[in-house]
Amino acid sequence: MKKFEIKKILVPTDFSDTAANALKQAISIAKVNHASIKLIHAVNSLYTTGSELTVPNEKPFLDKIQKSALLHLKTIAGTYKLSSGIDITYDVIMGGVEKVINTTASKEKFSLIIMGTHGTTGAKEFFIGSNAYKVVHNSSCPVITIQKKIKNGFKNIILPIRLGLHSRQKVDYVVELAKIFGSTIHITGFTSDRSKESKDKVKQYVKQVEKYLADQKLQYTSTTIFENNFTKEILAHAHGLQADLIAIMNDNDFSLDQLVTGPYAKQFVNHSDIPVLSVPVKQSTNLSYSPYLSGVSPI
Question: What total of structural domains would you count in the chain?
Answer without folding.
Answer: 2
